[in-house]
């Protein structure tokens, strides 16, 4: 009887492990996990909640985003890469650059880097104006 219970327990643990591993499968925009920014909608790999990208994930469309999502939008820390090779690494709120980050403009000769703070997707400078 103990052997049967042991085998049952191992089988159950294996099945739970398989379910956890397969919950991070690639899903597309037409599946049950939606990315709400058009330029990165296409394929998505990562965590979902209530049918939207939520948690850690990677979305690939015309552009690419890898990082934290909330309610289908890039939200939290992440990296957004445009089709031309430019990328922003930093904080996002509802899909827009917000807070501290680094914008790298890709160039054939030498990349240009802009480091500082963003508000409503616009560069504000090297000083954080909202830390009063």
Describe, in plain words, how this protein is organized in 3D.
The protein has one helix at 2-22, and strands spanning 26-28, 43-49, 52-60, 64-70, 73-81, 87-93, 96-105, 112-119, 122-125. 16% of the residues lie in helices and 48% in strands. The protein has 1 helix and 9 strands; from the N terminus they run αβββββββββ. Strand 8 and strand 9 form a beta hairpin. It is flat. The chain is of the alpha+beta class. A 9-stranded antiparallel beta sheet has the order 1-2-3-4-5-6-7-8-9, with no helix packed on it. The model is unreliable at 1-30 (pLDDT under 50).
Judged by helices, strands and strand pairing, the structural class is: alpha+beta
Q: What's the end-to-end separation, in Å?
A: 67 Å
Shape: flat
CATH architectural category: Single Sheet
What is the CATH level 1 assignment? Mainly Beta
Spatial sequence of strands, sheet with the most strands: 1-2-3-4-5-6-7-8-9
DSSP summary, beta strand count: 9
Largest sheet: 9 strands, antiparallel
Q: Which regions have little confidence, pLDDT < 50, spanning 5+ residues?
A: 1-30
Radius of gyration: 20 Å
Q: What does the average pLDDT come to?
A: 82
Range of helix content: 10-25%
In percent terms, what proportion of residues is strand? over 45%
SSE string, helix = H, strand = E?
HEEEEEEEEE
What's the assembly state of these chains?
single chain
How many structural domains in the coordinates?
Answer: 1
What do we call the CATH topology? Histone H3 K4-specific methyltransferase SET7/9 N-terminal domain
Helix tally? 1
């Amino acid at each position: 009887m103990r052997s049967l219970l042991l085998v049952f327990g191992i089988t159950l643990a294996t099945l739970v492990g398989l379910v956890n591993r397969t919950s991070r499968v690639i899903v597309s925009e037409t599946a049950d996990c939606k990315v709400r920014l058009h330029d990165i909608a296409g394929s998505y790999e990562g965590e979902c909640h209530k049918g939207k990208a939520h948690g850690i994930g990677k979305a690939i469309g015309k552009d690419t985003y890898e990082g934290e999502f909330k309610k289908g939008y890039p939200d939290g820390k992440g990296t957004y890469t445009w089709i031309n090779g430019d990328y922003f690494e930093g904080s996002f709120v509802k899909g827009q650059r917000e807070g501290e980050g680094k914008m790298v403009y890709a160039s054939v000769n030498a990349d240009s880097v802009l480091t500082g703070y963003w508000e409503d997707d616009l560069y504000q400078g090297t000083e954080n104006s909202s830390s009063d």
